[in-house]
Design goal:
Rossmann fold; 9-stranded mixed beta sheet; 2 domains; alpha/beta; 11 strands; 17 helices
């Protein structure tokens, strides 16, 4: 099995529940008049004027998705990212992808086509036609004085950039390291955490951590030599070392304490905590004082918990605590259609016709898009009531109070699966 294919597996196991105006945008703008924050806005086009009102004073805009397998989500988010950069001065987009893979690839963006940039840095389920416009935009803007910087915040590996670079360094330093075996142990450890006996878990965890530590210490010791002979910049070395440390910390938990009091696996909690720390590290060390766009799963970018998970803190909750009102989270939902499950390579049909679902509340029969700011002083308004949402990677319906979990939401009436040109 290819290493990059292997590295896709854990992303699904680790999911939560199972202003620049120099260049005017050519995007259509809605002329909708917003009466108040309680009003549900419907449109057959993306309402960029409404988005403007939502985020005009925010430094971090986080855009979620209820499934990684819906093509319209990738298309919509690509449009929103371009709008936020062109019109509102957001200069950085950080996506749910490998910190090391994307960080290293972005430093070599001049040598990559837009499709190479996409394919070398994203998880397989993100490598679809619908996301191409954003990568073409990132590539085009990279050669201007007004680039859209691209980064990743995940502690996991989403492409080949990081592992290829580590493999080259190991061979250069004559370290006898089998990266495939090392990462096999990474996944074997997680699977072994569900066994009744701790023997295999401890064996695989310790083997993985020891290998990562050996590589990390070797790079630190030979840092100057690697800089000269392999022409690695200080920034590249910083990214490599940080990513190794992330991978060590991602498995740094015990068999006995693998589940928290809400029956959430420790690996999930660690992953989201590390993702939040990565976002903060990127902002502090690479893009201080810049406005940030975050792209990820609903469960990762949420500002507050879903019901039943008060003690379980996800990435967005950590960031909300740090950045306060400067952090604005938008949940994405879909009423009906098809979603692609990349881990089974199957598409599923769905329709959220239950009157207690957020998709039902937001759907308008004659419109493709509906927009709702989850803010109302009326305690009886549905944004302040418990509702459910279909979140595919969360193994079904998730219940929550919209106003507590997100700042706003967008629902698409009818959706389909992403378009994959070359399915692995």
């Amino acid at each position: 099995m290819k290493l990059n294919t292997i590295l896709l597996i854990l992303i699904f196991a680790f999911h939560l529940f199972g202003c620049k105006t120099k260049e005017k945008s050519k995007m259509n703008r809605s002329t909708t008049t917003i009466a108040n924050s309680d009003e549900l806005i419907s449109s057959n086009e993306v309402d960029f004027e409404l988005l403007n009102k939502w985020v005009e004073d925010k430094s971090i805009v986080a855009i979620g998705e209820s499934s990684h397998g819906i093509g319209e989500f990738y298309s919509l988010k690509s449009q929103i990212v371009q709008f936020l950069h062109k019109e509102l001065g957001y200069e950085v987009v950080l996506i749910e992808g490998g910190f090391g893979d994307i960080g290293l690839a972005s430093m070599n963006i001049k040598d990559l086509s837009s499709l190479e940039l996409r394919n070398e840095t994203l998880y397989g389920n993100f490598r679809c036609k619908e996301i191409e416009p954003m990568f073409a935009y990132i590539k085009d803007r990279s050669e201007t004085e007004d680039p859209l910087f691209y980064g990743g915040y995940d502690a996991q590996t989403s492409g080949n950039y990081f592992t290829s670079k580590i493999d080259s360094i190991c061979r250069h330093l004559k370290l006898n390291m089998d990266l495939k075996l090392i990462f096999d142990n990474y996944y074997k450890m997680y699977r072994a955490s569900f066994e009744t006996d701790s023997t295999n878990f401890i064996k695989y965890r310790n083997s993985f951590q020891q290998a990562i530590q050996t590589i990390e210490k070797s790079i630190e010791k030979e840092r100057d030599e690697l800089s000269k002979t392999m022409h690695l910049s200080h920034t590249e070395l910083d990214i490599l070392l940080r990513n190794l440390n992330l991978q060590y910390e991602a498995v740094n938990y015990s068999f006995a304490n693998k589940m928290n009091e809400e029956n959430m696996h420790e690996a999930i909690l660690i992953r989201d905590k590390l993702m939040a720390e990565n976002v903060q590290w990127i902002i502090k060390n690479q893009y201080p004082n810049k406005k940030i766009i975050l792209w990820g799963y609903n469960g990762h970018i949420q500002k507050g918990p879903a019901n039943g998970y008060q003690a379980t803190k996800m990435m967005g909750q950590h960031l909300k605590k740090t950045f306060g009102d400067s952090y604005f989270s938008i949940g994405l939902f879909a009423y009906e259609g098809k979603a692609y499950q990349h881990w089974t390579k199957e598409s599923i049909d769905f329709k959220n016709s239950d009157s207690t679902s957020i998709e039902f509340k937001m759907k308008r029969d004659s419109f493709q898009y509906t927009f709702q700011k989850f803010q109302s002083k009326d305690v009886d308004h549905w944004v302040n009531q418990e509702l459910s949402a279909l979140e595919i990677e969360s193994n079904g319906n998730v219940s929550f109070m919209p106003s507590k979990r997100f700042d706003a939401g967008i629902c698409i009436k009818s959706v389909g699966i992403p378009t994959f040109e070359n399915e692995e």
